[in-house]
Amino acid sequence: MKKTSTRLADGRELLYYDLRDDRVRDEVDPRPLDAVSTASEIRRDPLLGDAVAIASHRQGRIYHPPADECPLCPSRDGRQSEIPAPDYDVAVFENRFPSLAGDSGRCEVVCFTPDHDASFADLTEEQAALVLEVWTDRTAELAELPQVEQVFCFENRGAEIGVTLGHPHGQIYGYPFTTPRTALMLRSLAEHRERTGGRNLFEDVVARELADGERVILEGEHWVAFVPYAAHWPYEVHLHPKRRVPDLRALGDGARTEFPQVYLELLRRFDRIFGPDEPPTPYIAAWHQAPFRGQGAVDRAQFGLHLELFTIRRTSGKLKFLAGSESGMSVFINDVPPEAAAERLREVASK
Q: Is 169 a catalytic residue?
């Protein structure tokens, strides 16, 4: 992998990640862009104890542009985008409309491919392996920023999820705090250790699913994917490395080599859940990594890196909405039994 760092016209960082070592990235962004002005502010909720990012400047962000005006496509035929080069393998740049900026963290956009009409599931194993290396590299670099406490790599796919740019891409958030979801996991981790005399919660969860087998949908030498016992979403899969590590940087060579095969198969199964004539399945793919500093880092060595993949589509043409119980009380009601979801995800395995 070759990495090249450059700057866009407004000063934001742009990075190219290339499969070939001989690629030269010297294109200049000619756009007359004003300097980025953000108004991101973190406010604490005194009742819940969590944080809310107030980012009013995001109201003006690009919203469902036509394909020939996509800002994530390469710059070609006189049309300038966020990526000045006429082609790329993977490109990463600072978000022009970030939710977090400056002392409040950092937001980046990750373009998986120059092909506007593709999806992550269309990538080759070599391309998917490059994306994993990019996630790892960005995690390592953002972890060095003093204002960043936790790094979150994720992909939103589909208009139903709220995606405003159809080009295959993901994002990376560098939070200046430990997120509430991670704080809950860390609390459960500590309680389990105390209750069991030192056992690790993540290892016990994986061992339980492997022993039971009913919800396991895919198992390799280094990874296992299963529908969790108490799945929140209609179709939800957790992907764990069999050797527990706290973050992407700690993955071994074997896990890195096997990951593209396993993850691409998961994504392709998701697109087959509802049948061959259905539109692509909307999903969120989210990496859970241990915090790097702050109170959340106390148990980072005990944390278990894993990827959560889920869809809000519960059946053909119907979505799972977060209504009163979910939105008002954070109590999920799942219409699809996890065992039934696992069975369906095994049925649609690639032949």
A: yes
